[in-house]
DNA sequence: GTCTATAGCCGGATAGAC
DNA sequence: GTCTATCCGGCTATAGAC
């Protein structure tokens, strides 16, 4: 027979805390809230973590780890620079679309993250794919400001996802506009040909 | 002689609360925090507002009112469609850049806003400029998905501002990249000619 | 319109039994 | 590793004096 109560590991707790922090933010989640979803008492959390901030930081680290590897897949596309851009946008959009908790935490960290956390996020998660985008930018447009181009690519993808909750209240907003394929296609056309690439 | 203590009006309180909510969010600001910056005791706030949520909602309403009018200025530019796009991007970028509290509140509402608040934001603040962008899109690219194009214009401007705190930790990120003129110029070129419009 | 005082709850965190 | 019990401070909100 299995034991009636299964002891929780640190990572179990973190995995259950991540959705809470994503939905309500650091100040909006209490230790009791976390304990509730884990199925233990709040005091037991202090066996695993010295305090709430430490739990939060480790939850962030876990939510962001492996992301860099996920992004690396988006860079394996080969072919002409244009094909590679299209492939990258497609894979990156799908990836971000499928992991709403990661996206929400990213949004929250941009608002509330201190220097240390933003540095970690930039260097451990986004550095590699960002450099790949910059290299692609340099190939497509020699001499361009690669940083601005890479950021613009990310902007188009991520803001279309970020604004999903308000889209239906804006003129012309339909449910289909939140689909990763629709977004990726639109973004790719816009990047490659400007607005005139967006004709139907 | 002036009175030693100047009674505070509702709008005085709201104007002082707005920066707090922008910086720390609803859950991150207490009635005592607000009372502190106003220079009164927390209990006195309940003379002006029935509860914290009501204060917050009125602060949002005030932070967002007049914004639609501000945006209307961005639409007064005349000339060819391309000139008008360039003008709109320039004015909109400068406007959003100069009002960081509004931008932060917008970011927070996209994360935490309920249906009612998002509806208000969409209809009272962004509807007009959004429609203007859509009309411009239709002129520039007849038959395009005007909603997606308008959202992409906003994406490029707003995400460059939203990512300002992390930019310096990303490859190639410089302080100049956060300047409204640099962003507006980059975004305009990208929109009009795609990536190849971004050559230096 | 603001104050003091306080109710009542919920927050993070600790001590010590099992 | 989890529990019960508890401390204590901060929170929203109310009552009533000035």
Chain pair with largest interface: A-B, 67 and 67 residues
Distance between the termini of chain A: 62 Å
Overall pLDDT metric of chain A: 94
Instruction: Give the fraction of residues assigned to helices of chain A.
Output: over 70%
Unreliable segments of chain A (pLDDT under 50, ≥5 consecutive)? Answer: none
Radius of gyration of chain A, rounded? Answer: 20 Å
Task: Name the CATH superfamily assignment of the domain at 63-197 in chain A.
Answer: Tetracycline Repressor, domain 2
Tell me the strand percentage band of chain A. Answer: under 5%
Looking at how many chains there are and whether they match, the oligomeric state comes to homodimer
Got a strand count of chain A? 0
What shape does the CA trace of chain A take?
elongated
Instruction: Report the top-level CATH class of the domain at 63-197 in chain A.
Output: Mainly Alpha
Work out the helix count of chain A: 11
Q: Give the H and E element order of chain A.
A: HHHHHHHHHHH
Structural class of chain A: mainly alpha
Please give the CATH architecture of the domain at 63-197 in chain A.
Orthogonal Bundle
Q: According to CATH, what is the topology of the domain at 63-197 in chain A?
A: Tetracycline Repressor, domain 2
The main pleated sheet of chain A reads as:
none
